[in-house]
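The instructor's notes for this session suggest beginning with a concrete chain rather than abstract definitions. Hand out the sequence below and ask the class to guess, before any prediction is shown, which regions might be ordered.
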Amino acid sequence: MKFHLFVHFNFFFSHFRYHRFSQMPKFIPIWVLFCPPAPFILQIKYTNASTSPFPKNATISGPITNATISGPITNATISGPITNATISGPITNAKISGPITNATISGPITNATISGPITNATISGPITNATISGPITNATISGPITNATISGPITNATISGPITNATISGPITNATISGPITNATISGPITNATISGPITNATISGPITNATISGPITNATISGPITNSTISGPITNATISGPITNATISGPSTSSAFPHKISLFLAFVATSTHFFSVCR
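After discussion, reveal the predicted structure:
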């Protein structure tokens, strides 16, 4: 294990159980003995290093490489670059910033902010009241995801639920988002993506191109333009709006806005055909 450690501190002897110093001081000033514990700052260049348990109210700055940081992590700031590292929770009221590459961050993650670029990384929950921002590429984010915001660009990524009261914004490309998806907002552009449900009380907005959205879809709104895409049900009390081009929308459907328009159109065609046949 090799790492370089620079410390600005105001703390008690308890700190020495967290880290090993390559060179311990020969004496400790008397004022340290009477100084109350306080938050401290760690400026670390980690290489093959580990911290366990993690000190509260700490700031760790990178590069962090081939390192393991384990929690509980509370009111902390960890900044990168973070590469081939493992950060495990619980993670609460923390900020983790990248670039984050080939890393694993595991929860529970609560009231936390994780910012990228995030590449070839795995972030696992439960994820609650958290913000994860990209670019997010070749990454896996798994839930449950609740009251969270995930923003892109999101490319070649997998986001799995349950996803509840969450916002996922793009561009979303070559991505897979799987539910259950409830009271969520997913906004594009959405291209070559797969979104699977059940999808309930959700809003999915485009442009949506070469995408697959599968249900059951209930009390949801899907808006385009929708091109070369497939939307499959059952579809209940849903609104699907276009323009819709070279798309397939299949049910069964009940009281959804798009099938209702189709029914009106077919009724018009049938009536017109009958009218002209009578006139002849």
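Then share the key points. The radius of gyration is 26 Å. Residues 200-280 form one domain.
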